[in-house]
Amino acid sequence: MYCLWCDEEILVEVNWTNFLLPDRPKQLCEACEKSLQRIEGAICKLCGRPSDVEVCMDCERWENDAGWKGVLTFNRSVFQYNSRMKEMIARWKYRGDYALLEAFRETIIKTFNQTFVQVRKDTILVPIPLSEERLFERGFNQAEALANLTGLPCENRLSRIHTEKQSKKTRSDRLATTNPFKIETKIDRPVILIDDIYTTGITLRHAASLLKKHGCPKVYSFTLVR
Amino acid sequence: MLNIASSLKSYFTPSYSWVPSSNTKQDDSIYSKQFAGKLLLRQEIPLDDPTLNELLHNNLFTTLDSIEKYIWGHRCRRCGNKKKHLFANIPCARCNHTHLYCRKCIEMGRVLECEPLYYWTGSSPTWLEQEEPCGWSGELTRHQQVASDRIKEMMIKGNSELLCWAVCGAGKTEMLFDGISAAIKLGKRVCLATPRADVVRELLPRFRIAFPNTEIEALYGGSEEKQGAAQLIIATTHQLLRFAHAFDVMIIDEIDAFPFHADSSLPFAAKRAVKPSAATIYLTATPRKQQKRRIEAKTLPTVFVPVRFHGHPLPIPKLQMSFTLNKSLNANLPPTSFMKWYQHYRINPNRQLLIFVAKIELAEPLVESLISLHIASGKDEITSVHAADPDREIKVQQFREQKLKLLVTTTILERGVTFPSVDVVVFDAGHQVFDEAALVQIAGRAGRSPDDPTGEVIFYHSGKTDAMVEAVHSIIRMNRKGRRL
To answer: Is A217 in CB contact (< 8 Å) with chain B?
Structure first.
């Protein structure tokens, strides 16, 4: 096997345990694996970022706003957005290196199942959509690719109007944008929104508020990084 | 049967027969300048769909499959990748099929199996006719002149290869001017490629001065110019991934440098970028085994320049055994014999000192301990650089301007940089990063200027390696060759 990120060959040391019971083939070499930081330990109970206080400053601001209060039940993420993760997301999403997702597969599935063990039964996954132009440009929807890993039913119930990239805007620009989503069909079951990054939380909240307006009882979200 | 044999052959030795032969008709339309010799992805062509479709309809552009298929594998036509683990499947939203893409060259835009590469098959561009393109009026030494004449002859004749084996500090760039000038007079298109972007940045102003009326463009990752529409192109070897059958003359500087010799995509792209009738010139101070073998077998014509432009011999490295080397370096201290040399035996203490270390982690702590040992008075006299250092260029510039007395560096400064008057030491020269080529290049940093043509070079080691011995031998051999001439 070769490391999906740095292309170094991964050599597995053979011992009695993995001689008798072979390990799953590793997708990242040890050094690259170490450079990723998983979100573990104390987190903000709303947005899921590592935090010592129960509700972080950002979420407090959201919850104090009457228009946004309780729109998103909670968000959970797998990795922290450190510099290596930034590089990896850039290659995966913007360069379009689809296979890089395999590097996160196991961790994503594990975290997802742990987080949503109670609610997963009758929820529907809804990936955040891309506009048609952006989908053509990228060749794949990164949120859909993430959603497909979990093995739960996944439905495209939203569509998106083409706007400028979120990542090119500042925080205040992002918060001022109008809702870029349109609903295709209504959902009356709880929903887990799937996206790649939770930055300010505005994108997920736009989608969540639209779903709720059309009769969805509860909206959670799950992202790769926070 | 014949079919399988030929496809086997083309799998192992890439053939470029799929590149359409270029149109011999010439005109000076904007398109022909901009697109001739380019192998592009759709998103790299700044034209809207109707315009491109019309050009395709008129056979001015031709589409080519981007990935070659073999029964036993694939090859990316842009970067030559045929490693299985560097191809992956993507459920493509453009064509709604799952198919391959190349992961190797993805940093330069993704090559999808469902999308073709575009190649210009319209007329070839014409360039400004010039009586005397070269404005450089310096003089060459006798040895430079010999090499320069060979290079010129080659460039005019075409259809061949030449290796120019010139020692560090021989003045390689000046030897090219005459030949390039002749090529430009004949209306040929010239490319000077080098593995390193900082060399491109350094060469561009020199060529702009030497060829004031010629269109010159510099291409490297992040360069301002991206068109590649000039007659003379100075580029990193990575940029050649976007060219096919484009150049009549190709000069590859420092063929033995990283990453050119380590990444098979780059020689693949360099070979594809030249026309079948082109002249290819390789420049190096330290050829690798592969080239040496071809020199010995006399299949690669070679011209030597064994003397520096100032005529003095190369400084020969001293090998200094230090039994406690590893112990000292583990404690982030310089070897004891270095201290002795520095305090008592240094021939010219006014020179600056360049210290090479094997690992990045050693550079910074060593700076601290050299200050505490009073070798340097403080941070204004000594600093360290490594590849990932954001201030790298500023620090090197400060050292060049003699604002710093000492510089601790990893192998990134082994080549391409010139400091007027330095001594050079290597700590742990037996480390595997210091191969023969690296050591010869490092030794070549000393004695570059005619005002101070000597300099001490000391390799501190805890046991001689073949690389050290070979490096010393090859320097001695070059000096002997230089004396004989």
So the answer is: no
Q: Cβ of A140 and B93 within 8 Å?
A: yes
Q: Are A21 and A50 in the same domain?
A: no
Same domain, A58 and A99: yes
A95 vs B88, B107, B112: nearest CB: B107
* Nearest C-alpha in A relative to B115: A139
Q: Do A109 and A28 share a structural domain? A: no
Residue B329 has pLDDT above 90, yes or no: yes
- Quick: pLDDT tens for B66-118: 999 988 889 999 999 999 999 999 999 999 999 999 999 999 999 999 999 99
Fold of B127-305: Rossmann fold (3.40.50)
Classify strands B216-219 and A181-183 as parallel, antiparallel or unpaired. Answer: unpaired
A43 with A25, same domain: the answer is no
Of the listed ranges A13-17, B289-293, B346-350, the one predicted with least confidence = A13-17
Rg (CA), chain A: 18
Alpha-helical segments (H) within chain A: 16-20, 30-35, 57-64, 83-89, 105-115, 132-138, 142-150, 171-176, 202-213
Whether A36 has a pLDDT exceeding 80, the answer reads yes
Q: Do A95 and B106 touch (CB under 8 A)?
A: yes
Q: Which alpha helices (H) appear in B414-465, and where do they start and end?
A: 436-443
Q: For A104-132, how does the pLDDT look when each residue is reduced to its tens digit (9 = 90+)? A: 999 999 999 998 888 777 888 999 999 99
The tokens describing A17, both together, are 């345990």
Strands (E), A128-211: 158-160, 181-183, 191-197
Total number of domains constituting chain A:
2
Alpha-carbon distance B347 to B326, whole Å?
A: 26
Answer yes or no: do A67 and A116 share one domain. yes
Name which of A91, A99, A135 is nearest B88 (Cβ-Cβ): A99
Is the CB of A26 inside 8 Å of chain B's CB atoms? Answer: no
Indicate whether A8 and A97 sit together in one domain: no
Across the interface, whether the CB atoms of A91 and B85 are under 8 A apart is answered no
Return d(Cα B57, Cα A96) in angstroms, integer: 30
For residue A27, the tally of other CB atoms under 10 A from its CB is 21
ipTM exceeding cut-off 0.85 for this assembly? yes
Q: Do B318-484 and B127-305 fall under one CATH topology?
A: yes
- The shortest C-alpha distance from A213 to chain B (Å) reads 30
Shortest CA gap A57–chain B (Å): 33
| Token pair for B127 | 């360039």
The 3-state DSSP class for residue A106 equals helix
Residue B91 and residue A140: Cβ atoms within 8 Å?
yes
Mean pLDDT rounded to a whole number for chain B: 91
pLDDT given at position B1: 65
Percent of chain A with pLDDT over 70: 100
Residue from B76, B81, B94 to probe the interface with A (highest A Cβ count within 10 Å): B94
Does the distance separating the beta carbons of B101 and A96 come in below 8 Å?
yes
Say if the Cβ atoms of A96 and B91 lie within 8 Å: no
On chain B, the residues whose CB falls within 8 A of the CB of A136 are: 93-94
pLDDT score recorded for residue B252: 95
Interface residue of A4, A95, A100 to substitute, partner B, most B CBs within 10 Å: A95
Closest residue on chain B to A5 (Cα): B103
Q: Is the peptide bond before B50 cis (omega within 30 degrees of 0)?
A: no
What is the model's pLDDT at position B241? Answer: 94
- The answer to whether the CB atoms of A95 and B91 lie below 8 A apart is no
User: What residues make up the domain containing A6?
Assistant: 1-35
Shared-domain flag, residues A31 and A71: no
Architecture of domain B318-484: 3-Layer(aba) Sandwich (3.40)
Contact B134/B180 with Cβ under 8 angstroms?
yes
- pLDDT band for position B221 (cuts 50, 70, 90): confident
Domain boundaries of chain B, sorted by first residue: 2-124, 127-305, 318-484
* Cβ contact, residue pair B89, A99, below 8 Å: yes
Q: Which residue of A lies nearest to B106 if distances are taken between CA atoms?
A: A95
Indicate yes or no: CB of B106 within 8 angstroms of CB of A96: yes
For residues B154 and B143, what is the distance between their CA atoms, to the nearest angstrom? 17
Assess whether A191 and A121 both reside in one domain.
yes
Tokens of B210: 């030497």
pLDDT tens digits along B354-404: 999 999 989 999 999 999 998 888 888 999 998 888 888 889 889 988 999
Which CATH number do you get for residue A163? 3.40.50
